[in-house]
Amino acid sequence: MKVGVPIEIKAQESRVGLTPTSAQELINHGHEVIIQDNAGYGAGFENSDYEKTGAKIAPSAGDVFNDADMIVKVKEPLSEEVSMLRENQLLFTYLHLSAAPDLTKGLIDSKSICIAYETVTDENNRLPLLAPMSAVAGRMSIQAGARSLEKPLGGRGLLIGGAPGVSPGSVLILGGGVVGENAAIIATGMQANVFIVDKSEARLNELKSQFGERITTLLSDEIKLEEHVADCDLLIGGVLIPGANAPKLVSKEMIKKMKRGSVIVDVAIDQGGCVETSKPTTHADPTYIVDDVVHYCVANMPGGVPMTSTLALNAATLPFVLKLAQEGYQDALASDANFLAGLNVCQGNVTYKAVADDLDLEFVDPSKAIN
Same domain for 300 and 310? Predict the structure, then answer.
């Protein structure tokens, strides 16, 4: 199979779909790899690194899309990339379609086969291809939030870990999944007062065992969330419904009651955000202020550390890329229900129910779509 990797063209996105090591693995298995000129440069990989593996360097994205049977990316394709997709071409990347009706329509019209990293599952119903980027985003959320609390950036002028004789700040983490756990790792390391809210008592018990007295766990059904939102200095939104829009847990009214100069980092913004006042931002202009509260809503947070992110992502995605290349999408997906869960759009059909429901589109069972 011919596997193509274009440059990521989303603003301030420097990750790349395949590392040279991943390209080498595909080539060792008899496949051809086509890399757009300087696609890996922002993540620390030179054209020569790919050429040493036997990969071909293509001068433009058009050349990659024209020649490849499968396109491997990181972020969802923008309109100019969607226009280059062709019928029956494989696209393997993050998609987040529930928050992107225009993109979904474009992919439907292309009649390509679109598999989303973020909805592939494992035997424990976890999300193995979303997890590495969720871990990075969770860790970055505390860095970004702590920085945004500084006065020159509009924050309260508060050091999240406090100082001798000065109490540390309060971090409220909504969601105890991969994002929340990794946010807590950094927040506790910075000596903040950390509170984690989740709907699962079992998950909160796991986190309590991991962090001990360094965190306070809060069962969502047993608290008044608005009181905790009002008390915190930094709020991290890390809730997730696989493939669907994130629930709006924090309302405009709650925002109005937050402290002046407090900060929200809405990691869920890729799925629409879990804060009512959230809207996507970029690394170039990451924050805005609503009711004296700083909002950090960068939609591709891990793109800020592309070397780390690319290596972490490829460690997770390569076995799936290789399976698609070896077996073709029909056999690869038919033989693995967890992999089949990643199929979002197939030859003009929406094959992920949460996307169909959120966008009011007809749903086609993925097992039928691939036959």
Answer: no
- Is 283 labeled as catalytic in the residue annotation? no
Quote the number of domains for the chain: 2
Tens digits of residue pLDDT in 5-44: 999 999 899 999 999 999 999 999 999 999 999 999 999 9
The last residue of a domain, from among 276, 304, 332: 304
What is the phi-psi region of residue 39: left when phi exceeds 0, alpha when psi lies from -120 to 50, beta otherwise?
Answer: alpha
Residues 181 and 81 in one domain: no
> Model's pTM, two decimal places?
0.92
* Catalytic, out of 266, 270, 295, 358: 270
Which positions ≥6 away from 203 have C-beta within 8 Å?
A: 176, 177
- Is residue 125 in some structural domain? no
Do 166 and 239 sit in the same domain of this protein?
Answer: yes
Catalytic annotation, pick one of 96, 233, 266, 295: 96
Q: Which two tokens stand for residue 158?
A: 């508060």
**67 flagged as catalytic:** no
